[in-house]
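User: Could you walk me through two proteins back to back? I'd like the raw sequence and the structure tokens for each, with a short line separating them so I can tell where one ends and the next begins.

Assistant: Of course. Protein one, sequence then structure:
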Amino acid sequence: MIRHGKSDWSNRGLGDFDRTLNERGLRNAPEMARRLAERNEVPQAVVSSPAVRAKTTAEIFCREWGYPATDILFKEEIYEASPSTLLKVINGLDDRYDSVALFGHNPGLTEIVNQLCNSDLYNLPTCGVVLISFPFASWQLLSRQTGDQLLFDYPKNEEGEAD
């Protein structure tokens, strides 16, 4: 699970869906992608909300990973999704993939992480990453409290601050 980078609020005329990343978001995204690559945690597939800030974040991560941005699967239902909607998206993933990066938004991402892992994550910060492992070979079997949180990382982690 990867939350989109910090968005730009300077253009008040843009709707929420069309908000872009600000300078910090553009700086944090490649850094977080590199951190995952250094851990050898590059997914086999990438699924993203089509909202501009999520799409841009996913494209930046893909560029860092050497993953073709044209292969990103955009799913409209991820935008403003509830945890139950996110679970439906996850349950519908192709079983040929052992690892998938899902780029989306709060509060849905924080809530689905807490449900899947029985975690007490207060807030998944912008450009934050949570790696979850499941003991199943099929995405259809994922449900509440079936995952183990392997990693929680975010841009300010080294500074000891949260967003």
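----
Protein two, same layout:
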Amino acid sequence: MVDKLTLSDAQWRERLTPEEFNVLRKHGTERPGSGCFLGTKTPGTYVCAGCGNPLFKSGTKFESGTGWPSFTQTVGPDSVAEIDDRTYGMVRTEVRCARCDGHLGHVFPDGPPPTGLRYCMNSVAMKHVPEGQPLELVRA
């Protein structure tokens, strides 16, 4: 279990770009096809842009055709939290960072084996740490 990181909106605004703040703290969504990680194949780990919490390994990334980077599974059971999302007249499962509660995207049950899951993420909510570089959590 990771230690929680809780900051005020003002502290998040100082730490994040306006786009990161909109997605991570206000549950926004980047336009499909616009994310910087959509076609990325570089080995490494995707971490939360807000706090550095490890989220996904590059080996679990796949091309879903949806316009957002997609993954079949998380780094581990404590990396994300899944929340019922009934906004906009839909029933979905929202995915949030387990450490800072930042909105990352949604998970759907239509992914490829081995999990059958599609973690559909916003690029702006993540940073990529190339393989071999240390993973460091952002300190409060």
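The chain has a mean pLDDT of 93.

Let me know if you want the two compared in more detail.
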